[in-house]
Write a structure and sequence with these properties.
There is one protein chain. The mean pLDDT is about 90. The chain is built from 12 helices and no strands. Helix 2 runs antiparallel to helix 3, helix 3 crosses helix 5 (about 115-135) and helix 8 (about 205-225) packs antiparallel against helix 10 (about 240-250). With about 290 residues, it is mainly alpha-helical. The protein has 2 domains: about 1-150, no CATH class; about 160-288, no CATH class. Keywords: Membrane, Transmembrane, Transmembrane helix.
Length: about 290
Amino acid sequence: MPVFSSLLPTVISAYGLQTALAAIFVPRANDKFFDLGGALGFLSTTFVSFYYPYIRVKIWDAAKLTPTPLLSTFAPRQILLNLALVAWSTRLGSFLFTRAIVRGGDSRFDELKHQPVGFTACWMLQATWVLTVGLPVYLSNTIPAAVHPPLRTLDYLGAALFAGSWLFEIVADRQKSAWRESKDAKEHNEKFISHGLWGLSRHPNYVGEVGLWTGIWLLSISCLRTPYFPRGTWLLAGASPLVTWFIVRNVSGVPPLEKAGDRKFGDDPKWQEYKRTVPVFWPWGSRG
C-alpha cells in the first residue's frame, strides 16, 4: 500500500542508526549510550518521516520548491505531533544519558553487555520499539498537509493529555533526582522515595510515559481515519500506548524495580507499608 511504502525510509533510518550504534558500542561492552541511542532514533525517524514526502516531491517529481519547507507546508496536526515527539525524546534522552554517565552505566545491562549477540539484539529491539511507539506520528506524516482534517475536540484532548502526562513524568523524575541529591548530601536517611507523586504511585514516571503516548495516539486518530489510510489503521497505531504500557508495566520497567526494592528493603516495615498503601502503577489501581 502506498501509505505504508512511504514508511520505508523511516524504517531504514531506525534500523540503520541502531545497527551503526551497535557496531560501535557492542564490541566495547559500553551501555552508557544505549538510552541516548533510543532518543536519537526517535529524532532521526521523526526528521525522516517529516521531511521525506517534501524531499521526494522536490527530487523525484522535480518540483520547484523552496530549499527548506516552510511551516505552512505542514498541517497543524503534523506540527503538534512532531513537536511533541521531538520534545519528549530530547528531554528524556538527555535525562537518561546524564544519569547513565553519572552512574557509570545501566544496571539492566551489567551481564548482557558482555554477550555480543544478546547486546546486539537489544539495539535491534530498540529500533523496533522506536518504530512501533512512534507509529502514530510517522503515519500522520505520510499524507499531504492539504488532506489532513482540521483540528477537532479529540485532537485538543490528545494534546492536553500529552502535555499533562509529560509534565507528570518530568515532575516525577525531578522529585526523585532531588531526593537522591539530598540523600547524597546526607540531608536525610530515607531508603526510598515515598513523597510527592511517588506517594500516588510507586512508578509515576511510567504512568506519565503511558499517558503521553496515549495523548499522541489520540492526536493522530482523526488523520488516520481518513480514506487515505486502510480501515483500522488508527487501531494499528494504538499499538503505541499499548506497547509502551506492556513494556514498562510487565517487562523492563516495573518488574525489575519492584524486585530490586524487595531485595533491598523487603524486611523494612516502612517498605512493606509503602507497598501496602501506594498503588504499584495507576494511582487508582491495585497495590500488588
